[in-house]
Amino acid sequence: MQTLEKPSLLKLQSVKKYFPIKGGFLKRVQGHVKAVEDVSLEVFEGESVGIVGESGCGKSTLGRTILGLEEITEGTVTYRNQEIQDLSGRKRKAFTKEMQMIFQDPYASLNPRQRIGNALEEVFIMHTNLSSSERRQKVYDLLKEVGLKEEHFDRYPHEFSGGQRQRIGIARAIALNPSVIICDEAVSALDVSVQAQVLKLMKNLQEKYGLTYLFISHDLGVVRYFCDRVLVMYLGNTFELASSEQLYKNPLHPYTKALLSSIPRPKVGNKQERIRLQGEIPNPANPPAGCTFHTRCPFATDICKSQKPEWRDMGDNHFVACHHVEQEVVN
User: Fold this and answer.
1) What radius of gyration do the chain's Cα atoms show?
2) Which domains does the chain have, with CATH numbers?
């Protein structure tokens, strides 16, 4: 487990999330899709942690499990020394104020028949005792906070651009002054110029309110700009964790190196050979034994096929799970 000189806010310990596979006439459970497999992570107050990996690696499921939208199969998620899975009733409702999510598709997360102002007002109706006029003023303040205007209160979702709709999603996420916001591909559906504006807004809000972000993304360029640390996932497993600077400068795991080699490099003379992984991601319902990456890894040996690599600290809070990491460091 990594330790930094900051207050620990969120802690994941051996978190697993399996989805049952049912079949036959009686719809009995015949197996499980292992979406998240033994993930441990400590998140510190005020930082931004990126979670990256190919589609299907389990990063979005991990985010939903942390938030409680998916029930944990095994392990614990602890927020401020309180295990989230133990919360119920009023404590669960209170917890929802502390942790919010920004979704990938802001339009799908909004009711097309409901005015934006009313949608934002619902948050205060559910969680506060504010009067109607006070709630409206709160919504006005939120709209201004994310770069919109009071006149947008009475508009419907289809009357906004994609970037404006994501600003509304951000406004809804910060409405109750949360400590943690999980961003599930929050800017991937936006144009590049709009991405920059939204990321700048999120940075400003983080500085103003001391927010902690879990930033789930497949865009490694955005993650490098936005995140303090980066966790690399593959087939539900964690492969590497380091500061953004360390990971991009000195990746240790072959899978991380392959991911980083796919980032476009516009500078002339800064060409890097693309590492092309062979084959498809294995079926998460029947993952390979040993290291789950060995079926695609060009450096796999017999031990990779039979033993799961340990999570090791390589110094400077740089963690990796690979049998041959010493060889990689030397090379």
Assistant:
1) 21
2) 8-113+156-330 (3.40.50.300)
